[in-house]
Amino acid sequence: MSGLDDVLIGPRRPAPRRGTAPMVAAVLALLGVGVLAAGAGGAGPSAYVLNLIGQIATFGMLAVALDLIWGFAGVLSLGHGLFFAIGGYLVAMHMVKVTFLATGTPPDFMLFMGWDRLPFYYAGLESFAYTSVLVVVVAGLAAFAIGYTAFRSRVAGVYFAIITQAFVYVAMLLMFRNDTGFGGNNGMTGFTEILGQPLADRRTVAWLSGASILAAALTLGGSALLTGSRFGHMLIAIRDDEARLRFLGHDTLWIKLTVWCLSAVLAAIAGMLYVPQVGIINPRVLAPDLSIEIAVWVAIGGRGTLTGAFLGAVLVSALKFLLTAVAPDLWPFILSGLVLVVVVLLPNGLLDIRAVLASRQRRGTP
Amino acid sequence: MMGWRRRLAAGALFLLTLAATPVLADDRALSELLAPLCAGASAERVAAVDRLLDAVETGAAEPAWALRALEAVGGRRLVCAEGGVFITSGTGVIDAVTSAPGLADAVKAQGAFVDLRLRPYLDMGSAVLRLLASPGGPASGAALGELQKRAKIVPPGLIERAAAEPANAALAPGLRDVMAVAALNDPDPALRIAAIGRLAEAPSERNRTLLRDLSGDAALTSDPVVAAALADGITRIERWLTLGQVAASVYSGLSYASILFVAALGLAVIFGLMGVINLAQGELIMIGAYATFLVQEALKSVLPGLVDYYLLLAIPFAFAASGAVGIAMEVTVIRHLYRRPLMTLLATWAISLLLINLVRVTFGTQNLQFNVPPFLNGGTHVFADFIVTWNRLFAIGFALAVLAAALVVLRRTSLGMYIRAVTENRDMAGCVGVSARRIDLTAFGIGSGLAGVAGLALSPIYTVNPAMGVNFIVDAFMVVVLGGVGSIAGTAAAALGVGMINVTIEPMFGAVAAKVIVLLLIIVFIQFRPEGLFAVKGRR
């Protein structure tokens, strides 16, 4: 087999550089432990800062998930908000159910509908373990259904991106309805506790933030391992020339499906960590714009590098937090300017900036 | 009794002729006709109205004279006093029969109160008399409306006479309809059956309700012939009503499809040519609508006489504004991204964000106010309850014109030939001397301009604000995906399909469900034909 490969595709290409991802993952893990310690010890930064770091970490995790499928398999999804929302909505339902069992009254959005109990699909959601399993299963199944139908009929590239966007758009329209039991246009909010810990407590905040950072670190490290493996080489091969890989007898459908579902599940877990920290989920999460923004993080940081995707998400969302507070009218202009500059001048994102500058310099010297 | 001559042809001569009317011996008979109207139980006064109308029918009384009396009753100005019946007015009193000046002290008197039972008879009587006294006069339309409301109590003979007046020709169909409704309660079964048949020929919700009410009447349905005619009439009306509903849905589907087509055409041409999906297409539509708005405002201040035609005058401006933005996009950004189609998604999204916010900062977020020109207001009634509204017809006609223009440009001009050549095989076209880059630029400009024109066509139907483009973009993409790459026929067919499916599903399950189902259908469809409905054969 490998002999034939050598004949057909020439000598084995050198394995891609391991890159900076493991290092960044290690630093992140240290940070996560630090945050956990800060929470336990009662010292360190304020709850607000901890919460902000935790939210940004979930965005970074989401970006890494998208980079896995876009940067490595070359499949762009403009609908990853769908999976993020699946995780977010399920954990919100879990918290609503716990509150309902404690107080006996359904949340406001159900009282408005005239319901005196939770609909049947809230059954069992008071168990956090069951909720976690459900997050993985629902996100995985949804991704499988979309991916299987699309990849099987060889929908790829721009077509696939548009179809994923249509899915997230339709999901948003559905969630805007008030009769679905998911909170309608106001969404779900007013959560009080998770795993028995009050959400307002600084210790819980630190705990959630640390968990998010550790999850991001795990995602980053695991993705680095995965993409460095033989499976990762297959992904890169699909990105670069899927037709050739198919002629060589590889079933690219299942390779793509595997990484697609993995990416979706990671995004769902990020959503699950995000919602308890931000305290609300509503259909705005499913807006096509937000899903495109995830791709923007990856593009700005540099796709196919994992670290770049993570840092892009951290940079852009930190900037967004800062600027939407200081100059909300200015933010869309800065974001669109940033995207245009990166896309036109820095094809591989900001991580590319050194190489570009270097080549400019070389051209400049006679 | 028959001494009255028919000298009154038009209401304009009314007062003049009244003054000249000779006092005749049967004045007393006329006076007796009016006396019961002055006062008494409402049933008696209703009967008096009937008698008065009968007198008009037999020719014993003039319509104009009777009309004056009935209007006086309605205004509480008909007063019975010693020596006759008088009509008071602010300035004086006249004898209701002879029109001679009457007792001055009656000026202050007031006629009897008109109750709710009498009012419909008075209104109906006045309406029919008005049609007879001044046929085709300015109030005749309102009179017909009044008669249609009171169709169950009208005197058929007078209505027939009114319908026979040449000046009432325009109202004749409506009057016949009124007669038919009146004849439904006629004791003669033959007349009833004729009336049922006449109503069944003009299907509408109202006539169906009339016949249904009638079929609940046991006295009527006991006659098997009438009952059969009734049942037949109802089935016929229902058949037409169903057809009318189908026609109405097809019409609204067509208009929706037209909008989808115009919005998606530019997208499809650009996608076919360059493999670039322009996420800013919705914003180019928005810019077209804003350009239309600016043209309207400019006309208002410079040439107010032409404001009604702003939609036509704005076409070149909308095309140019969006086309210019599109060309600027192509030159500054998209040109650098031809080998990276996925990046163009992000780049055009960034441009759309930029455009939305630029417009928001310049114009504000509020919806724009468009004056709908008078020729786009209303519509025409076709049959049953199917109404063709002009603004939707405008959208359909517009889409057809755009389709024809696009086909001519692509099939009959050298530019079109180059565009098709580059779409099919970019490298080969380049080898035979077609400048692919120049074609790209031109096509991008045209595709963007088409979006601008779509914005113009949308402005009288939809709300226009900076974020309007977002609503179209996903639907337009679905049309492009379904229609296949770069095929105008495919785009048209897909728009038609999506539009029709949408209007079929929407009344059953609601708008959101319709979108979900259309999307799922498209996904299923792509399983079988990944290249879309009309795939262009080409190598890429």
From TrEMBL, chain A:
**Pfam family example for this protein?**
BPD_transp_2
Query: In which domain of life is the source organism classified?
Result: Bacteria
Q: Which residues cross the membrane?
A: 21-42, 48-70, 82-103, 128-151, 158-176, 205-226, 253-274, 294-318, 330-350
Instruction: Give the primary localization class.
Output: membrane
Q: Which GO terms describe its molecular function?
A: branched-chain amino acid transmembrane transporter activity
Provide the protein's localization. Cell membrane
> Which keywords, in A-to-Z order, does the entry hold?
Cell membrane, Membrane, Transmembrane, Transmembrane helix
Q: How does it sit in the membrane?
A: Multi-pass membrane protein
GO cellular component, alphabetical, reads: plasma membrane
Output the PANTHER family linked to this UniProt entry: HIGH-AFFINITY BRANCHED-CHAIN AMINO ACID TRANSPORT SYSTEM PERMEASE (PTHR30482), SLR1201 PROTEIN (PTHR30482:SF4)
Tell me which NCBIfam families the record gives. urea_trans_UrtC (TIGR03408)
Name this polypeptide is given? Amino acid ABC transporter permease
Originating organism:
Skermanella stibiiresistens SB22
From TrEMBL, chain B:
Q: Which residues form the signal peptide?
A: 1-25
The residues that cross the membrane are 254-277, 309-329, 341-363, 383-410, 443-464, 476-501, 508-528
Q: Which Pfam families match?
A: BPD_transp_2
Q: Name one GO molecular function term.
A: transmembrane transporter activity
Question: Can you cite an annotated GO cellular component?
Answer: plasma membrane
Q: Where in the cell is it found?
A: Cell membrane
* Keywords, in A-Z order: Amino-acid transport, Cell membrane, Membrane, Signal, Transmembrane, Transmembrane helix, Transport
GO biological-process terms attached to the record: amino acid transport
List the InterPro entries hit by this protein, alphabetically.
Answer: ABC_transp_permease, ABC_UrtB_bac, BCAA_transport_permease
Note the topology in the membrane.
Multi-pass membrane protein
Main location per the UniProt record: membrane
Q: Which family does it belong to?
A: Belongs to the binding-protein-dependent transport system permease family. LivHM subfamily.
Q: Which PANTHER family match?
A: ABC TRANSPORTER PERMEASE PROTEIN, BRANCHED-CHAIN AMINO ACID TRANSPORT SYSTEM PERMEASE PROTEIN LIVH
Q: What is this protein called?
A: Urea ABC transporter permease
Higher taxonomy: Bacteria, Pseudomonadati, Pseudomonadota, Alphaproteobacteria, Rhodospirillales
